[in-house]
Amino acid sequence: MKRLLPLLAIVSCAAPPASPPSPPRELVVEPPVVEFPRMMADTNPDPHVVEVNLEAKLSRVEFAPGQAIEAWTYDGGVPGPLLNANVGDRIIVHFKNSLNEPTTVHWHGFRISDQMDGVPTIQKPVAPGETFTYDFVAPDAGSFWYHPHMRSAEQVERGLYGPIVIHERWDQTPDFDADRYFVTDDVRLGDDGTIAPPSTQMPDQVHGRYGNTLLTNGSAKAVPFEFRRGQVERWRLVNTANARTMSLTVEGAKFRIVGVDGGLLPEGGVEAAQGVVELPVGARVELEVRLESAEARLVSLVPYVDANDELQTDRIVIAKGVSVAESGQDPARTLTWPGVAIPALPDAAASGTHLLELDGFNDGTGIKMTINGKVYPEMDMWMTNQNEPVYVTIHNKLGMAEHPFHLHGNFFQIVSRDGVAVNEPGLRDTVLIAPSQTVVIATRFENAGEWMYHCHIHEHSEEGMMGMLTVMHKM
Ligand code: C2O
Ligand code: CU
Questions:
Q1: What angle do CA 66, 210, 418 make, to 5 degrees?
Q2: Tens digit of each residue's pLDDT (9 = 90 or more) over 23-39
Q3: Where are the beta strands (DSSP E) in 280-366?
Q4: For residue 441, which phi and psi values (nearest 5 degrees)?
Q5: Does this model's pTM top 0.90?
Q6: Is 108 in the pocket of ligand 1 (CB under 6 A)?
Q7: What is the position in ligand 1's atom list of the atom closest to the CA of 145?
Q8: 444 with 427: CB under 8 angstroms?
């Protein structure tokens, strides 16, 4: 594959940005349990190494009981199995591609070497029947996910995505009574109940493909779970849809946002504005949920236009828990944890700046989406130095499309929207840019390498809204 950037003396930094905090080697800490339907099996006896097999293949799955359809799966199911490890663990994934086309696996949110990042301009795509071993150290605790980075609009839509949990250091893990992962998606099923082929129709090209069926942990029905009243739980949420921003809330329990893409927020967390979590495609959020009633529901708020042309909201229950016992605990009790150290924003006067303008046009053959006027694989030269603070201004010039902007290999902080400082704390790898909005983010680019940045609406990235950045290694 043609390299699209000049081959400068780029030394890819195999070491993660900061030396990963790991427990003393002699201390054996099994990663805590996360409630999720399927887990990857660790085949390595070393407690600091998680070694797993993962196969992409066609399989029949049931989104609703009794309705088997063909999906593209990891290990035979949608979503793929949960990868569960402790921060600082070495993760080895023996990946096999049994699809009928090339693919890669991208570890969304991982600050690892670009050689392991699953981007097909760096890694040779894994051809049908071939294998590749991903090998890296988990640099950060938090909720992440994995998915292909080739023809994503179809490969992810057809079912290739799965969750990852990297647990905090053993002595920094908050004392939640349960830890659950809800993977949210929407899929477009055709009249015959199967996943509709990718669309070349105009609304899908402009907005990305919205599904007609919400899937949570692969189920079109509300995911059932059980709890003991009085529990305080940690719920991890990821949005793996092609395009739909998820509006989520919890009924029957009090909740706060305690974590985002890059891990736990400082103690206490933050309230969701208006009690609704807006979760862009690609992003994660972690909730602290205080289960004080007999029933708790995770609800997706889905807007629609009714017969009178009025905007309405459907409240779709996507997970439903019932209390099966009393925990005997006070659901109002305070939990403590150290949280991620959120660095102060860099001094603007001593920082670089960069402008990314997101736009699009119709060239007569279809919609093209651009960054700084270029349609990928054409792109602007963007080079920076490792550990150099940069304020990046991202301007969405389109008044009709939103863009969940995603940066690989590095976290950033959200500084402002349309010139107004925001309180959206935490380290991020994804930020939603509303139509016509300008968002400023700040990053220090701790991780050297060649990194993609793109809109996470897969239709948009494939229409050209994608670029690559070189972070030069600091000697
Ligand atoms: Cu989740 Cu470049 O992707
Ligand atoms: Cu977009």
A1: 145
A2: 555 566 788 899 999 99
A3: 284-290, 295-305, 311-326, 352-362
A4: -120, 155
A5: yes
A6: yes
A7: 1
A8: no
